[in-house]
What does this fold into?
Amino acid sequence: MSNIVRFAQRARAAHPAAASGGIAPLLASFAHHRRQPGDAYWLKENGELLGVLSALNRRLPELALSVYQPFVEGAADMVAFHPQYARLILNLITSLEDLGYPGGLGARLADWMLDQGLVDAEVNDLQRAELRFLMARHGRTVAFEGLDERLTRFMSRPETFAIPNPRAAYDLLHAVFYLADYGRKPLKLQPAVVESMLMLGSLSHLEGNGDLLGEVCLALHYAGEVLPPLWLRHLRAENTAFRISPGTCPDSSDCYHIFLVNQWLFGTIEDRAFGDAYSGGPMSIQLNRPAISPLREWSQALRAQGNRRSADWSRMRSLCRDQVSENAFARADLGAAESPMFDRFFARFARASRPVPIWPEARPA
It folds into this structure.
């Protein structure tokens, strides 16, 4: 894992990527101005940015990528001391090399991980799927017995994805991304898996969660499915509503991830991404959102119905009319009119048929 290929030193002003409006300032901001370089959050955020650019099949000039040279040169020491971050480090290096970073370090890191037995250190199937995907990007094969069957079983239960569960939502969508090699190979999913994504899409639209809704649309696109126009309208409105401002975001809790997913989606389906003029240095990405989401309003209103709660959308629409805001009511009406399988989604979201458990009396100690 030595012999790192260094970039040739060039005058920054001579390269157009260094000018305001190119991608280089955005990379520099993520590399230097959001998180402490090299910590787990830094690896996550920079891995997400570079992963989106890789999924869009971008090739970037050396000067733009050179902001990551210190990370690449320190990767061997980092992974030796932090083997628990090996998959994160491999992910970032893989994306860098997809984008044009020279040196072949990814393949050497993959071999080192295999030699160290780190493929056996993953604790769940999604991490195993990601590692298998990353290894395959470097021509290495790892086999996890029964992995695809377990992933398919998990993804084929639409009921899971019709109620708020961020962990399950993340796992569903990223399993699709890994199986599709981020759009590099065709993917045909079972109808139940597509239904699961439609349930999650209806939930995300009702919540106004453009982050999750954008990933749902990407996963559906990779699976060759038609994207609902209602969901795309919501995401296009957000596309024009992001505000990128100079200055540090104190806790890095801005809307950077929603922005990245939005750019990824429209870069994929319309070849239109990262067209803003980015200035160098710290920046924050903001998007106005309601303090209380329509999803939460509807969830609270439905639970308040008690024994009157029903899986029938029309009945619940009437009963909950005065218990939710105009915005929440209008959002649900839009979903009912245009979201695929909305009736199935609402029946599951209402949880009217879910029996209340009757616990046996505890035995005396």
User: Anything to note?
Assistant: Confidence is low (pLDDT under 50) at residues 1-21.
